[in-house]
Amino acid sequence: MSNSNIDQRKIVFTIVAWSVGILIFFPILWTFLTSFKTEAEAIASPPVFLGFDWTMENYGEVQERSNYFRHFWNSIVISVGSTLLGLLIAIPAAWAMAFVPAKRTKDVLMWMLSTKMLPPVGVLIPIYLIFRDTGLLDTRTGLVLVLTMINLPIIIWMLYTYFKEIPGEILEAARMDGATLFAEIVHVLTPMAVPGIASTLLLNIILAWNEAFWTLNLSAADAAPLTAFIASYSSPEGLFYAKLSAASTMAIAPILIMGWFSQKQLVRGLTFGAVK
Amino acid sequence: MGSIRLENVTKSFGNVEVIPPLDLEINEGEFVVFVGPSGCGKSTLLRLIAGLEDVTSGTIAIDGEDATSVRPARRGLAMVFQSYALYPHMTVRKNIAFPLKMAGMDQAEIDRKVDGAANVLNLSSYIDRRPGQLSGGQRQRVAIGRAIVREPKAFLFDEPLSNLDAALRVNMRLEISELHQNLSTTMIYVTHDQIEAMTMADKIVVLHDGRIEQVGSPLELYRNPRNLFVAGFIGSPKMNFLSGAGAEAYNAHTIGIRPEHLTLSKENGLWKGKVGVAEHLGSDTFLYVTLDEGSHFTVRAEGEVDIRHGDTVFVSAESEKIYRFDANGLAL
């Protein structure tokens, strides 16, 4: 193939890649721009892209009306809490599956993953009733527990894939050296798996942060995270697009910034084991 | 300290019995080598002794005490793995100190022991490096250092030199032999390389399909192999075998002659053949001869021999150097 052909293909691929990227990013960009418009400009037809009067008014109103920081703090507690609790359960579970597999370990892994394919609404009523009767409704503890449960299969799968890459001989060496099971996991396995654990942690925080179904259904005021904060701006009396956009921008900004800084780690974690 | 006795030990994985009932006695201070082809069960046997695998039946006694159900660390054995199995996130110092830390030893004592082991194994100059910054030979030394500091009853080596290049392997072989002489601790060493077995062992255990074919000193096995398998496995180049009429002349089903016990002549001899390949090493010449009756012989001649590819030669052997085997492959 001649060099000019390769160059042409490169240009076409670059254009296609950028187009797809912009297409995916456009709703976020539009939301971001709308958050700086007035309500009238936000619903103007034809829409104005950049030529409007930029205003911070929506952000002020949103904070005044809804106390953004309370929701933000709830989101932090729920996503970090459920991730840490999930890791605490998943590390020993993944260790067992990776290093002392039983006959049906693969089946257990598949079964765990299959629970992610069920529509969550199928178990909403029983879980709601359990939460009501145990006093967990609208509590951060309740949301931490439910998000831990729903994300546990993914955490275990990711850690399992990562642990499988660690040579079993190193753990056997630790056993010969007198390490107890606890010491083996704490002193040998976990430090060796830090990159994998870090990417699992990041991904799970993002998943928990973005989770809306359970957080909206099981919280009302006290424990409501940012998902509930955004939802509160879609009212039956009519939509306030500009304020909704400001609320959305404030809700997604922290996780977007975190994702941006840790993208290398995330991609590495998600593709680990895919290519040897 | 350091005697190990295996009685009726078996190991099965599911329905597959990899170690049929087996008895073995390893005496205090011995350097015992388990040797055999890949898949013969030698590593499994070592792992059973280490406690990394559970025996299916039978007992393992260490220093006279039943250790069959004792967990690995409590058996007082130290193991050096084929892949070194160093902790990649720890420095050399921390790697060597790890078993002592696990034993709850105080820090001053740990430092003293680690420095001692580092001196013995010439590790001091890279004591603060991580395994990833070391060469294969250095890593292997760290693995040995980690084993030494525990002052174990016995050392277990699982093919420790197979990841090293040929020159380094010879050096490390000598170092391990010297270590054994200095420490006088029991050592069990697994290898598929019969040269390692012959050069290092006090006692060789030849394994085949999980069974012990023969146990003895290197020269015992070389001089008096119990069967065809041992005869063919011990010695390099391997023993030549001849069946049929050639063997019947010696009242045997098969006869075996070592390459170094064959003599060559251009005029006359027992078997006539044609030289296929001649390897001239200077100190020795290896000739691969196809006999007229179809068998292939390897002949080792001392020094330089003026025989080339395609030459017709006669091969002979003194009758006392001919090994005889029956139809079951057992030595007569």
- Secondary-structure element order of chain A, as H and E? HHHHHHHHHHHHHH
- Please compute the radius of gyration of chain A using only Cα atoms: 23 Å
Distance linking N and C termini of chain A:
29 Å
Mind telling me the CATH class of the largest domain in chain B? Answer: Alpha Beta
Q: In this structure, how is the largest beta sheet of chain B organized?
A: 6 strands, mixed
Which word captures the global form of chain A?
globular
Strand content of chain B: 25-35%
Task: Using the 3D structure, state the CATH architecture of the largest domain in chain B.
Answer: 3-Layer(aba) Sandwich
In words, what does this structure look like?
The complex is a heterodimer of chains A (276) and B (332). In chain A, helix 1 packs across helix 13 (241-261), helix 4 runs parallel beside helix 7 (140-164) and helix 8 runs antiparallel to helix 9. Chain A is 74% helix and 0% strand. Chain A has 276 residues and is an all-alpha fold. Chain A contains 14 helices and no strands. By secondary structure, chain B is α+β, with helices and mostly antiparallel strands. Chain B folds into 2 domains: 4-231, Rossmann fold, CATH 3.40.50; 237-325, OB fold (Dihydrolipoamide Acetyltransferase, E2P) (Beta Barrel), CATH 2.40.50. Chain B is built from 9 helices and 18 strands. Chain B has a 6-stranded mixed beta sheet, sandwiched between helices. In chain B, strands 13-17-14-15-16 form a 5-stranded antiparallel beta sheet, with no helix packed on it. In chain B, strands 2-1-4-5 form a 4-stranded antiparallel beta sheet, covered by helices on one side. Classes of the chains: A mainly alpha (276), B alpha+beta (332). The A-B interface holds A 167, 169-170, 172-180, 183, 187-188, 191-192, 194 and B 50, 52, 71-73, 77-79, 81-83, 85-89, 98-99, 102-103, 146, 150.
